[in-house]
Structure formats: C-alpha cells, structure tokens
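Project standup — Tuesday

K.O.: blocked on the structure for the chain from last sprint. Re-posting the sequence here as requested.
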Amino acid sequence: MTAEVIANLIVLSSSFIAFLYGTFSILIKKMPLYLKMVVLAMACMVISRGYILLQYLVKGEEPDVFHVGMLGLMGCFLFLFSANYGMIDGLVDDGSIEFLKIRVLSWIAPAVTVGAFVLLCSFDNIDSKLVTYSVVMFFVALASRYHFKHLIFPDVEYGVVRAIRGYNAVALLLCVSTTILVLSDLNGFTYVYFGAGITMGIECIILIPLLKKEAIKWTKA
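H.V.: unblocked you, prediction finished:
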C-alpha cells in the first residue's frame, strides 16, 4: 500500500465520518443552513478522495486528466466559500469605509495561496492535470479569503463571527493543507503528500463537531 493510497484513505475515512456525523446532527435536531452547507462540503470531499482512491487501487495511479475526484474537490471548497460569502459575510460587513483595511487584509490568504501555487509549480510542461488543479486552487483561494476575513473581522452586532472563529481557523488550515497536497501531487513529493493527507484528515474530522458546537452558541446568542 503506497503513501498516496494511505493518505487518501485517511482523508476519505475522516470526511466520511464528518459527513455522517453532520447528517445525523441535522436529522436529529434543526441546525442552521450554514452547517448543512459545510456537511455537503464534506460529502464532496468523500466523493473526491473516494474516486482517487479507486483509481489508485484499480490503475495504480491517479489519472492525469480531469476527473470526478477533481470535481469533488472543487465542490468542497465551493460549498465552504458559498456558506461564508452567501450566509455570513452580509451579516458582518456592511461595506462601510470603516472596515476597508480589514477587507484589504483579507486578500492576504488567497494571495499567499495563489502565490505558492504559481511559484512552486513547474509551467514548463503544461498538461491537463495542471490546468485542472489551477481551477481547484481558484476555489481554495476564494474559500481561504472568507475564512481568514471572518477570523480577523470584528463582531459589530450579531456575534456570528466570534461564535464560529474556531471553525474558520480549522477551515483555513484545511485550505492550506489542500494547497500543500496539490503542490506535492504535481511535484511528486510523496512524503509531503502523505503528511498533507494526514493533516487534512484531522481537520475534516473535527470540522463538523466544532462548527456544530459553535453554531449552537450562535443560535442561542
């Protein structure tokens, strides 16, 4: 069993446990739509790592072309981005000049994400895998911006940002770990890939319980 297979198995298991936990939490007790969208993000991660794991087991390697695993990874971070941008950001940021500095600072996260991807990738031989990963990193960068923004943005009125800062910190780390995983895959760094997979697994498995705990505080606030 290769390091890549073990890494993807860890992420698959962790995200599947997170998805099941989140699903049962939603069914048993009414939870905010925000949590439901993050549960769907974990479902996309399950699809992503499950497909790649099957490819390793059947063919011995991940395909170099666009595939369902890539689509699942895009979906994961699209849901994370949509949850923050569509449901939370309007509650905390009214677009006033007072918080312009924080809005500008929030672009540090996507700038670092995209910068690391550009600097550490070899563009000598551009193939479909690199192009597809570039699209994946676009969604990772979008998600990272709002996770970072909601970490540094002050609570003005509703107390929402303060309540879910722990979740946003872990989700931001998931963006970092995914970036490292993508870069190590493109550059053939097996042990870095393995370490990133372990880290992603840890982050996935604590993401939903942490958000559930914080969301309860938010709804009771």
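K.O.: great, moving the ticket to review. The chain is about 80% helix and 0% strand. The mean pLDDT is 88.
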